[in-house]
């Protein structure tokens, strides 16, 4: 952890009131940690915008009865090495499967991979959770 620096900011009362209500609802103990997280969120967003090496999780909900879906998901992931670093498959019920695919790599390549998987016929819902490798985020 780097040296702690104190600074003051000017903010409209209404905006601060709304911020305090938000951070209280989310369980922050104080404004400092909430502001640090808001800054980190912007830094992660910037890493994705600038196409840096990033990390994330692709979540897929799909019907495994859909012909070819399992093979298609596997095939795409095998061709997306080394971005795919781990995956977990959960059989939710007799029809539905939930899969988490941990990914790391260049932001645009990760987005293309997520789009390809999520747009497959039979995938009912998919999301890319975008985070950072953490190297440049303190
Ligand atoms: Ni399954």
Which structural class should the secondary elements be placed in? Answer: alpha+beta
The CATH architecture of the largest domain: 2-Layer Sandwich
Q: What is the top-level CATH class of the largest domain?
A: Alpha Beta
- Would you give the CATH topology of the largest domain? Alpha-Beta Plaits
Biggest β-sheet, characterized? Answer: 4 strands, antiparallel
What compounds are bound to the protein? nickel (II) ion
Assembly status:
single chain
* Low-pLDDT residue spans: none
Question: Total number of helical segments?
Answer: 4
How far apart lie the N and C ends? 7 Å
What is the strand and helix layout of this fold?
Blueprint: H1 13-25, H2 31-49, E1 53-63, H3 69-78, E2 84-91, E3 96-106, H4 107-118, E4 123-131
Antiparallel strand pairs: 1-3, 1-4, 2-3
Bound molecules: nickel (II) ion.
Keywords summarizing the entry:
138 residues; alpha+beta; Arc Repressor Mutant; Alpha-Beta Plaits; four-stranded antiparallel beta sheet; 4 helices; 39% helix; 28% strand; binds nickel (II) ion
Description of the structure:
Strand 2 and strand 3 form a beta hairpin. It is built from 4 helices and 4 strands. The radius of gyration is 19 Å and the shape is elongated. The chain folds into 2 domains: about 15-50, Arc Repressor Mutant (Orthogonal Bundle), CATH 1.10.1220; about 55-130, Alpha-Beta Plaits (2-Layer Sandwich), CATH 3.30.70. The protein is an alpha+beta fold and about 140 residues long. The structure holds nickel (II) ion. Nickel (II) ion (NI) binds near residues 64, 89, 91 and 97.
